[in-house]
Design a protein that fits this description.
Shape: globular
Strand content: 15-25%
Distance between the termini: 35 Å
CATH superfamily of the largest domain: Type I PLP-dependent aspartate aminotransferase-like (Major domain)
Strand order of the largest sheet: 4-12-11-10-7-5-6
CATH architecture of the largest domain: 3-Layer(aba) Sandwich
CATH class of the largest domain: Alpha Beta
Amino acid sequence: MNLSDFDKQLIWHPFTQHHTSGCSIPITKGDGVLLWGENGEEYIDAISSWWTNVFGHCQPDISQAIKCQLDTLEHVIFSGFTHRPAVDLADLLLSALPENQKKVFFSDNGSTAVEVALKMSIQYWYNKGIEKQTFISFVDAYHGDTFGAMSVGTRGVFNQAFESLLFNVEFVDLPNESNFEMVLNHFIDIIHTGNVAAFIFEPLIQGSAGMNMYSSIYLDKLIEIAKNESVICIADEVMTGIGRTGKPFASDYLTHNPDIFCISKGITGGFLPLGLTTCTQPIYDAFLSTDKMKTFLHGHSYTGNPLSCAAAVASLKLLNNSASQISSLTEWQKLFALGLRTNSKIENVRHLGTIVAFEVITQQQSNYFNELRDFLYTEFLKRGVLLRPLGNTIYIMPPYVISHEQLKYVYAVIDEVLKLV
């Protein structure tokens, strides 16, 4: 029995309708932007394996860091203990973030990084004797799949089975030039209820919603108002961090600094799970007390895992040395986006940093379940390119190490498949 058939007997894959999906593709090796299948098939990973693998598969510096750590310490309880990789990671990360970030809390993935931020925000006010339990989020937001993260995500296909169990959140439209005054007034009205604990957002790009992009000018104004009204601002940089937008973090485009950052995905270069939530000193100080009930009673078995931390330290060092690669990829993507604007089969071409996205025009509504998705996905794979459309939205988000020739091949495949639509 081949690996695909054996897998189908045993495994339930994420975001997969197994009734119609067929077999999963066995991958036996990865190197740089390339993946190899069981029978020698070669694929260009043009989406960085769900946006995690920013420096390429089997990146030698990260691989070596993990191997060295394996011979020293694989894991230790992180309550009451610490270790060098965690301290080095916190030091490197805080030096890369805005100077108002002072403390790092460790977890396991993007959803848990967000969950920690939400709980921090609620308990911050609780420890001060103030009841604030409302969150503000954007329409079409996606922040993860745990219950708190689902609650601050827009209501719809990702969470409708659980909607009655989610806590109440106030949603405002994603701001643009035509609706900003309305969004601003709505935002202010919600804050003036006096019950808003925090405002959470994906800075500049909503990923799973279809790579919806919006201007830093509008987000900056909302953050300014929130801060003036003592509302905690949470930047979900799980997807946008570690260089994706052309800067180390999307929040680097802002004038006003968020109070809390949520970081995952690219932080370990795609090697190991890790989530990080950072915060300001005043937020941390609200938990310092002789009253043990004010402790932040949250943790995971693998919190601060040394192997993940070692990978993240190597990853952040690579980020510091990747400015040229990120700049080149940004420029190539920008030029490709400009050329797409004359294609009559697509619309809403957008570009930021290393990301390009656009919609293929169909008679169906543009959304996650647009039926064109399966056709596009299959045709791309036939030509050796891993692109995973969000419905009829095609996006390109490759590792920074992709060569110009490899990227041009991805572009050529997209052009070829669009002609079949």
